[in-house]
Amino acid sequence: MTDTTLLLVGVFALLAGIVIGYLIRQQIAKKRIGTIEQKLQEKIRATKEEAQKIINQAHEKADEIIKSAKFDIEKQRKELIKMEEMLVKREGILNEKAGLLDKKESELKESLAGIEKSKQEIDKLKDELVSQIERITQMTKDEAKELLLKNIEKEYEVDILARIKKMEEFGKETLEKRAKDILATAIQRYALPQCQEISTTTVMLPNEDVKGKIIGKEGRNIRTLEKLTGAEFIIDETPETVVISCFDPVRRHIAKVALERLIQDGRIQPARIEETVAKVQEEIQEEIKQAGEQAAYEVGVLDLHPKLLQILGRLKFRTSYAQNVLLHSIEVAHLAGMIAAELGANVKVAKKGGLLHDIGKAIDQEVEGSHVKIGIKILEKFGVEKAVIDAMKSHHEEFPFENIEAVIVKVADQISGARPGARRDTVENYIKRLEDLERIATSFPGVEKAWALQAGREIRIFVKPQQISDLECYKLAKDVANKIEEELKYPGEIKVTIIRELRVIEYAR
Q1: What are the CA-CA distances from residue 146 to residues 140, 152, 468 (Å)?
Q2: What tens digit of pLDDT does each residue of 466-492 get?
Q3: Which run of H or E residues covers position 324?
């Protein structure tokens, strides 16, 4: 064989092998596919059986639920029928009761109509009887009433006086005892040391040579001091002493501190004076702020606006009848708080009202109006509660009392101002108050004379016995006291005493 023949035989053999291999692989693949399909069929069949089983169970469960629901519905239907029967029965009972009520209402209306008719007949008979009595007695009903009262009053005057006196004494003793207990408790629990303020301040000098430095060449130093501070510096023969006089406590305090620092520094000249006074003025503003904060903290009022505390601090340099207003306000706040606690009132409102009751005195002449009205404007501006404003605005009775705290603040203010040594009055004011007391007392008819006693704490009134009876003395005393309260301003209270003395003189000859 040639090589070509061998090559062809090899190619055919290769092709035959490929065809045979392909057929064999086809047979194997068909067998495998048959096996997979068989498995799939088995799984499908098992799944169908499982699904059918689940469906059967669901049907059984649904049948149970339906049966239970039908039972519950039937049960509820029976209950509803039973309730409906009960409601029908109750409705019948209510209708029956409503009928009875309507019947009773008509009977009551008939009875009321009969009563009203009887009342009209009685009123008519009464009017006819009164007319007959007036015709017979020739007096009107009011005249007869007045005559009867006069006769009863005259007949039983002694008994009426005794009863009135007994009731007044009993009520007075009870109320005075309770009031004294409350006030004594408050005063004992808080006693603020007070000292009167004066309009001059004394600065001690280390030696007499300092006076010359203070005056300066041709008096330029002292003129600069007086110009910048607004105070008067009095340098006289008193050894080692300079007196600073000024009615404004702030300016007087600035002048005192500035002079003390200049003396300590030793350099007293106009430029140094200007620098020192300016620095002291800044420090005084900070001191005022701290004074307001300290006062609020001491009283326990911690919700005030910072600017309101600044205004409150100015009261440290304000006086009322030589009494320091800030110390007075602190004292009033403590007293008002203790009295409020005893009476069961609002302690916080009473304290805050007492602390701020004189806040209007911190403002100078740039705002017009009384210090109470100015204080109201200030407190409204800074959003202070209305109850506090109502509590502080009545302490001089410019406004009516709108809550119990207002009365408490007024009482605390009077206690603080009336304590011995707290305030100093001028002789002119003292004499005028005595004259006004006697003028008011003698303005009433039937008064013979009146004397003011005990520095104006008591007024004794002598009446004419022919014009004023014992019973009328009670009314006169109340009228005089009311008029004094309306027209005069005074600390504490004034006792009104009525004296009626009847003297009968006859001579035997």
Answers
A1: 10, 10, 19
A2: 888 888 888 888 899 989 888 887 766
A3: strand 323-324
